[in-house]
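Hi D.,

Good news: the full-assembly prediction came through. Inputs first.
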Amino acid sequence: MGTKVSSGSTGTKYGYFLGCVMPAKMPWAEKATFLVSKHLGLDFDYMKETVCCVRPGVWKAINPDWWLTLTSQNLATAEKQNIVIVDSCNGCYISHWECLQELKEDPEKLEMVNRNLEKAGLKVKLSTDVKHFLQVLYEDVGIEKIKANVVKPLNIRIMRHIGCHARKHDERFPMYFDEIMRATGATIVDTPYDKTCCGLLLYFADPKTSIFERIGVKMQTAKELDIDAYALICSGCYDQFERAVKVYKDEKGIAFETPIVHFSELLALSFGYKPEDFGMMYCRPIPPTKLIQKLKEGK
Amino acid sequence: MSGDSDRIKSWEKLLEAGLKATEHNQDEDAKMYPLRKQFRPAAPNIAKASLKRDFEVGLVYYVGDDVEQDRALCGLERKPPTAHTFKEALERKRKILEESGIMKELGFDKKKGYFKY
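Then the structure:
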């Protein structure tokens, strides 16, 4: 267990939105996120009764009004639970955040959405807020408090993948990501592909470009640079990483060895938690065996 | 770097699953009725399998025994507190999809479990 240095609440009740990928494919990230949030004293619990965000890349393309309607179910549910929605998947964040903004700015759309939600006994009153997990950590907790809780600095080299939708507000979220990762003691290795899209949204339309010219070049670079881990925050991007690992292995016979880790796992480790505390070694396409060994040996 | 092969098997499988979830394959129909005009269905074939899962569980991925086991290994509840657990959330979603006319426009028959086109 991690050593608690300081705690305190921000006074906000946060509801963590799991989305589709995290609960099914990234249980270690889910657990680590809760360890970190509780460790920092946040009033942080699951947002319950959630449905898909719904994927803006798919639904907006089919019909923007349908996307607004279906996404609003989660907003209305959050309002009933009296919570601020916290997303760490960039796709979920952008879906909830943009939907809320559009409903705030367009009364006709709000009326249309509520007409549709009414049939399921729901209503959006615009009383909730949507935050990215990076925002909660950097803006609400603060980088100094995060640094104060780091008891086991990580002497590792990482490559970053922040994801396109985390650039919605210019360089704010990427800066948060970098500062928080550096606070753990990790060294971020800059590469020409740091801003390259993972290719997830392209996959349906052009799978070859999506895999081999987006995510593939990034993972190839990680392999060449011999870094310890690829750090990301977005579950949607993770899904694409996992897919690429399988495609490369099955169709090209190329095995990648750089483990793909969630930002929260590195934070948890730096706070003194052990890999076993959040199941770091389980259910992942690239086992982080070398990374865990390196951390245990304190190299 | 680019791929050497022309196809990606997992993508082909996804497309196949989408076509399997479609009652009328327009390419097949065209062999029988060559003068029938083809049209672009609301849901693209490549997205249909994931849309179908979304309509069935409220989320894009299932949580089965294997996932439940993984979750337990990581120290979590076996089932997440999403629509996987709260079936009323799924029911509300289905109601919204039905009553707002989205299901009809998409041509998804929830009883048969497939798209008309």
